[in-house]
Automatic annotation (TrEMBL):
Entry keyword Transferase: yes
Keywords assigned: Methyltransferase, Transferase
Keyword Transmembrane helix in record: no
Pfam entry (one): SAM_MT
GO terms of molecular function: rRNA (guanine-N2-)-methyltransferase activity
Organism: Paenibacillus hemerocallicola
Protein name, per record: SAM-dependent methyltransferase
Length: 257
């Protein structure tokens, strides 16, 4: 992977790009007047982290870049503010003060909703194994602004960590968190939204292991939650049994330790 900037970058953007390259242990290349495609041909690498004045874009070989956006999490938090239920919050039983470990952060949408639900007295740690995605989401959570300050505060409270979730789970003490959450990339996509499509360029597609669920059950005080396609065989394979039928194409499996 390479790191570069947009055309005619400010000194701040250029320094930021160099810092990210050093942090990720990859090469920084000056943009000049070349397109991303031309740079890829020149350096024989189609994977780029592009630093703009306001955000980060990741090109993984596709035409559409990946960048941070809160997606439906903003709508979900607004609904919670209006007293409407949220499926994930209801099934997990998340309440203010809870400690949540999101083992598959992705773009961070569910972590943001959890962060709002557990409030200032709670804690949400979101694990991401892919360095480029981790960097994009970490920076986005701290910089993205909406008109809703409550939502902005929830984003800022999410703590991103880079690394395999198995390492984090093994390092945790028994009953050290309230909720452990898994949302692996769907093997059979429910829908290929504008956000999910680019995410597939960089996300970890490896299936969850039975050992990971076993470790999650060990560290969870309240429950372990798995989000998957409602007809997925992963619920049975990983020991969640069959989830309750829903009107949507996704379902949540729950294990109570």
């Amino acid at each position: 992977m390479l790191v570069t900037t947009s055309y005619s970058p400010s000194r701040e953007a250029e320094e930021k790009a160099k810092r990210f390259a050093e942090e990720l242990n990859v090469r920084y290349v000056s943009r000049g007047t070349a397109s991303v495609r031309r740079l890829g041909e020149r350096y024989r690498d189609k994977r780029f982290l592009l630093v703009t004045e306001r955000e980060l874009h990741y090109y993984g070989g596709g035409e559409t870049p990946l960048f941070f956006h809160p997606s439906l999490s903003l709508v979900r938090v607004k609904r919670l503010l209006n007293g409407e239920p949220d499926g994930l919050i209801e099934i997990s039983g998340a309440v203010p003060g809870d400690v949540v470990l999101d083992c598959t952060a992705g773009l961070g949408s569910d972590s943001i909703v959890f962060s709002y639900a557990v409030g200032e007295t709670g804690e949400v740690t979101a694990m991401e194994s892919e360095a480029a995605l981790y960097t994009i989401v970490r920076e986005g959570l701290q910089a993205y602004e909406t008109h809703l300050e409550t939502f902005n505060a929830a984003m800022r409270r999410v703590r991103m960590k880079l690394g395999p979730h198995m390492d984090e789970l093994r390092a945790r003490a028994d009953k050290s968190v309230d909720i452990v959450y898994f949302d692996p990339m769907f093997r059979d996509p429910v829908e290929e939204s504008s956000a999910i499509g680019p995410l597939r360029q960089v996300a970890n597609h490896a299936p969850l292991s039975v050992e990971a669920i076993r470790e999650a059950v060990r560290v969870a005080r309240k429950c372990v939650v798995l989000k998957e396609h409602r007809d997925s065989g992963e619920f049975e394979r990983l020991g969640f049994g069959q989830p309750a039928r829903t009107r949507t194409k996704i379902a949540y499996g729950v294990i109570h330790p």
